[in-house]
Amino acid sequence: MSAPTHADPGLEVPPIVFGARSVLRHSLRPVLALWLRLKVEGLEHVPGDGPVLLAATHQSHADSVAIGVAVPRPVRFLGDARLLAWSGIGPLLPRLGMVPLRRGAGDADALGVLSHLLEEGEAVTVYPEGSRSRDGRVHRLRSGVARLAAATGTPVVPTAVAGIYDVWPIGSRPRLRGGRVTVRFGTPMAPPEDRPRDRREFTLDLQHRLAGLAGVETAEDFSPIGGGA
Q1: What are the phi and psi torsion angles at 161 (to 5°)?
Q2: Residue 185 in 3-state DSSP?
Q3: Nearest-CA neighbor of 101 among 173, 9, 185, 29?
Q4: N or C of the chain: less Cβ packing under 10 Å?
């Protein structure tokens, strides 16, 4: 996987993400934490520096907001560029680390961006289900996270975001009243060997860990693209 350039089709990588001690980020985090009524568990599993993949459950566009607020260090994540148009929270997303991805950009481009960010020592949130879950179960995981971890040698921290669907449901706008959200971080997983069997075993293990953290069941099917909406 090669590092992306600004000429890559469909990709727009903001050159700056505000640091953990920036005034703007410092002022945003408590406001968003209050909106989410955020509770954080297992934060000690997230390294304070160096590359790490936060592999998370996915029920809402607000998952990335919750994780970005829960972790003291800046966290990057890919997001649909159309989210920037949402009133209120949309313009804040790049300040929380969102890398806008234009609809139609390929998986290779996305993995290239993520690889580049990890090479720069960033913390990166990824959603191994590939799309939002409508029923709350952790659906069958796609192979990208295992391939990315294996190729870059990056540890993976299983991450569950509970209660987030009530804050920003699929097909709806963010709810101004917010909700009660818990972000749970699990024990880090060493990257798999870059062999098909090892990657498959890693992916299955990750799915069960995510379900355990979230307190939900697993599903054998893939979550529908776009969360079914």
Answers
A1: -120, 110
A2: strand
A3: 9
A4: C
Residue reference for tokens 């993520």? 114
User: pLDDT tens-digit profile of 94-143?
Assistant: 777 888 776 555 566 778 888 989 999 999 999 999 899 999 999 999 99
Instruction: Please count the CA atoms within 13 angstroms of the CA of 172 that sit on its side-chain side.
Output: 14
C-alpha of 65 from chain center: 9
What letters, b where the CB count within 10 A reaches 16 and e where it falls short, cover 89-116?
A: bbebbbbbbbbbbeeebeeebbbbbbbb
Strand, helix or coil for residue 199? helix
- 141-177: pLDDT as tens digits: 999 999 999 999 999 999 999 999 999 898 888 888 8
Locus of tokens 């355990």? 212
Query: What separation in angstroms does the CA of 35 have from each of 3, 30, 111, 161, 178?
Result: 36, 9, 32, 15, 5
Question: Which of these, 193, 108, 99, lies nearest to 149 by C-alpha position?
Answer: 193
Torsion sign (Cα): 56, 59, 63, 67? negative
Q: Give the Å distances, CA to CA, from 15 to 9, 81, 94.
A: 17, 16, 10
User: How many residues are listed for the chain in this entry?
Assistant: 229
Q: pLDDT band at 210, cuts 50/70/90? A: very high
pTM: 0.86
